[in-house]
Write a structure and sequence with these properties.
By secondary structure, the chain is α/β, with parallel strands linked by helices. The chain has 2 domains: 2-168, Thiamin diphosphate (ThDP)-binding fold, Pyr/PP domains (Rossmann fold, 3-Layer(aba) Sandwich); 183-309, Rossmann fold. 38% of the residues lie in helices and 21% in strands. It is built from 12 helices and 14 strands. The longest helix is centred in the middle third of the chain and has 14 residues, at 199-212. It is globular and about 60 Å long.
Length: 310
């Protein structure tokens, strides 16, 4: 079932919570519209601050508001937020331990044909290297709503990453969401797929295709990249024949490299493949075109899985 884009659910949930809590403040950098915050601004004009195209100022203002007890959400395109203002994120937010929620919108290759300058395929890598910041990449509307609810009273710096595409429903009523804990969406003995963010949708469809040819998959939505849920990861790969990771991010410094590091340090040797963006000049096109080109379609994942298991 197709649902809303995660970004829309973020904005709807935040508005619902902010109506009841005047301490919730949103700071944007010329991104009220792209962040789906227009309704928030109309209804709660005293709880939103527009700084213009000034991401470094945005982060500093977020830190200051947090220091006086406000529950702050800094919203900006992820490509600019985590590049232009990286020093401010490091010093003003993480090292100073201000419980600000930074929201990177239009992440990955969501900007499509706008190209490499607007793609955000570095953000997870650079933030993973900074102490004291949690990183969450929701896979669907359920995870999005739950992480925003959790962020309101979260006591440490938090980065949440969103794309723009409408999502399919992945979760049933039995799943619980906790920052720092992955979620098992499927169980199988042949293959483990570990995915994060919007690529979980593609991995889910691949699992459905694989089931038709009697390959049963374990699928983990690793929505929290940092802290990494080592326990669910190790449990998911303990009895399978191969492992695939999928992410809308560079293969350098992302989910796949973290999984590989854990496996090597635990002396676990399995056929293993990281699906992400290689270190090269990227092709241009829509989000779908780019992801398909780099073998992240359900059909390409199926073929890769068959070869790995052999």
């Amino acid at each position: 079932m197709i649902e809303k884009a995660n970004l829309e659910v973020f904005a709807d949930t935040l508005l619902e919570l902010a109506r009841k809590d005047k301490d919730i403040i949103v700071v944007t950098s010329d991104s009220r519209g792209s962040g789906k915050l227009t309704n928030f601004g109309h209804e709660l004009p005293d709880q939103i601050i527009e700084v213009g195209i000034a991401e470094q100022n945005l982060v500093g203002i977020c830190a200051g508001l947090s220091a006086v007890g406000k529950k702050v959400f800094g919203v900006s395109p992820s490509s600019f937020l985590t590049a232009r203002s990286l020093e401010q994120i490091k010093n003003d937010i993480a090292y100073s331990d201000h419980p600000v929620t930074l929201v990177g919108i239009s992440a990955g290759v969501s900007y499509g044909q706008l190209g490499a300058t607007h793609h955000s395929i570095h953000d997870i890598a650079v933030l993973r290297a900074i102490n004291n910041i949690n990183i969450v990449v929701p896979a669907d509307n359920f995870e999005t709503k739950e992480v925003i609810k959790a962020a309101i009273n979260f006591k440490h710096p938090l980065f949440i990453r969103f794309g723009k595409k409408p999502m399919i429903k992945l979760h049933d009523g039995d799943h619980n969401f906790t920052i720092g804990s992955g979620i098992k969406l499927k169980s199988g003995k042949d293959l483990a797929i570990i995915a994060t963010g919007e690529t979980v949708q593609r991995a889910f469809k691949a699992c459905e295709l694989l089931k038709k040819i009697d390959i049963n998959c374990t699928l983990i939505s690793m929505h929290t990249i940092k802290p990494f849920d080592e326990e669910i990861f190790l449990n998911s790969i303990s009895k399978v024949k191969a492992v695939i990771t999928v992410e809308e991010h560079s293969v350098s410094g992302g989910l796949g490299e973290k999984c590989a590091s854990v496996m090597m340090q635990k002396n676990i040797h399995l056929p293993f493949k990281i699906l992400g963006f290689p270190d090269e000049y990227m092709v241009n096109g829509s989000q779908k075109d780019v992801l398909d080109h780099y073998n992240m379609s359900a059909e390409k994942i199926l073929e890769l899985a068959k070869n790995l298991i052999k």
